[in-house]
Amino acid sequence: MTAGTAEGNAYNGLRMAEVTLPSRAYWSDAEYQRDLDAIWYRNWIMACRVADLDQPLAYRVFKLGTQEILIIRDETGVLRAFHNTCRHRGSQLCSESEGRLKARLLTCPYHAWSYSLRGELVRVPSKSLPEGFDKADYPLYPVALSVWRGFVFVNLAENAQGSAADVFDSGSADLSNWPLENLVTGHAFRKVMNCNWKIFWENFNECLHCPGVHKSLSHLVPIYGRGLMARHDDPEWALHADNDAPEYSGGLRAGAETWSEDGCVHGPVFPGLTEAERATGQTYASHLPSMFIVGHVDYVRTVRLVPLGPEQTELVAKWLFLPEALTASGTDLENIVKFGIQVLEEDAAICEINQKGLHSLRHETGVLMPEEYELQRFHQWVRVQHAHMLTSTSADSAR
């Protein structure tokens, strides 16, 4: 669920029936490859936290589609990213998913070509070199890397533009009052969902499913129990414009402070939040196509998606806290984490049900209801991404 559009004096909902993406977009091998080429290989993708590479020579291998990206902290402390591919005959350089190099070189396990941690080819063990061979012509293939507030993003586009900070979804809230860079991981949860990655984003972008799927969450956030994400999702919002009860205005139920099983905070709260941010209960920022962040008063939750196939998606969620929260005697991580996992499990289960139904020979497209205005915006984003790839491909062919 996003934060919704900026509230003005307008109704958020769709005025006419809008068609969904075609069903084949969720299960076709060809459409999956199209998504990889147009979206996942051309956008900034969240790979890990800076803290995951906390010392020189530490590395991680991030897998995205058929691609493996090697993210490494060099001997000077600089983070760099390369394709995990030797320039000799294409061998994989690092076979482990993470670790720490024993030397300041990346050495191919096949024929021992060695590279500096800046990607330069520095050693070839052949007894002689071909005439005209220059090691400077064979550096590792670089991958664009961008750090945003403690998160590491990569972009596989050969001429990647801008940075990860430039492309947060327009409906995202400002998280500058949350100390994201200083937070530590209190819990991590991984799940492979049997659904297309777009199905999960669609589910995230509407709350029509909330009353039936998320009983506990709907009790905690009463407006979700009405199948709405924000006040202006209600076509009759003006009748309750002056009513600040949470079922109309959003926010948590009376007496609740955060997302947890009992609605109570269970550790130190963030000192820099405004009264409005404390009262909201959940503050969303989304970064298509790979992640969203939710700021609560006492922790931050991140969810990262990676497509594994047309009908499989990896979800990794992390609960981030102030360092002192993990050592404070009053912190009850289980109360917080169990509630979040319950919501994610409910989302995953209903997404898998959605996926199964899309194989009907008769179902070519669906239709969006007025409350699903964010789905329509997401679908349009997907269409634009595909169109941009076609334009770029045509331009390249014309050269």
Corresponding CATH architecture of the largest domain = Alpha-Beta Complex
Q: Can you tell me the residue ranges where pLDDT is under 50 for at least 5 consecutive residues?
A: none
Radius of gyration in whole Å, from Cα? 23 Å
Helical region count? 9
The overall strand count is: 17
Total of domains: 2
Q: What's the arrangement of strands in the largest beta sheet?
A: 12-16-15-14-13
Helix content: 10-25%
Proportion of strand residues? 15-25%
Instruction: Give the termini distance in whole angstroms.
Output: 43 Å
**Kindly state the mean pLDDT as a whole number?**
95
- Element-by-element helix/strand order: EHEEEEEEEEEEEHHHHHHEEEEHEH
Query: So what's the overall shape?
Result: globular
CATH superfamily of the largest domain: Naphthalene 1,2-dioxygenase Alpha Subunit, Chain A, domain 1
Task: Provide a short characterization of the protein structure.
With 399 residues, the protein is of the alpha+beta class.
